[in-house]
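INFO batch 0412 | record 1 of 1 | parsing
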Amino acid sequence: MAIFLAISSMLCLAVLGALLRPLWGSARSLAMGVALVVLVSTVLLYRIVGTPQALDATALRAPQSLDAAIVQLQAELKRNPDQPEGWRLLAQAFAREGKATQARDAYGNAARLAPGNADILAEAAQARALAIDHRTFDAQAVALLQRALQADARHQRARWFLGIAQRQAGNNAAAATTWEPLLAQVDAATASSLRKEIDSARVAAGQSALPASPGAGLLTVRVALNPEFAARVRLRSDAVVFVIARQPGGPPMPVAVERRSVTDLPFTATLDDADAPMPTLRLSQLREVELVARLSSSGTANRQEGDIESKPMRVILPAQAPVELLIGE
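INFO prediction complete | emitting tokens
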């Protein structure tokens, strides 16, 4: 029992430590991944080591370090190698130790034993890239990613990595095509960033950027100076204008904000989830917002003495027409 508990605890903690480093995605996805790894690790090690009561305590000793635990897991996999999740767990432990080549080889064994597991195939492809100094996806990694997408066409990590591999190879048009289906799978903020990558790939391929998608901008705001106000004041050229959306009657913290130079006036701004200063609250979560344009001489978003604001406007989302804000009324 002692050896089982020791190896399980050490390797699970090592994998948890590695996975908790922010690499992708949302906290929800990460938590699900961590929970899955813990569950799989515990069940797998039970299967590899066998029935705890049957262990001979005189023959096996509890490992005193992560390296010792890895050695014992390797020994068990040598005895019983047909365990894809065992090789996956070993690969994750190697990755945690910074042993990229060993992680690549262990993932290779896992992928060979689980040819239809999209998660393992994508992780094996990533491990191959991390084992190369210039971090590129070689032909074998690309083949793993293609197999992952054959197994699960909606696998986000495999699709993202395949697009990266295609861009690395200079196949920009293919990368854009590979990435485009992800737009329907990710949240609005991620989609906004992803569209920039897709557009960059399309432009590099000599194509035009993607057309604006319906709802991509939840709010279009036209900001201008009141002509009478502009005639009687002299504005500093380094002054800025903040276009702010906030909860009506709620806290002063904006749910979306865009910063522009005073020299841009008049201008049109588009506010969406990508303009959220905090990830916990976004425009797409609200039914109604209050809009204001603030002229700031200090250049800071917090209201200061001497700042000039437009009249607040309440807007139902998504707005069907541009909202007009006039500073200095």
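INFO post-check: Residues 154 and 181 are 8 Å apart (CA to CA).
INFO record closed
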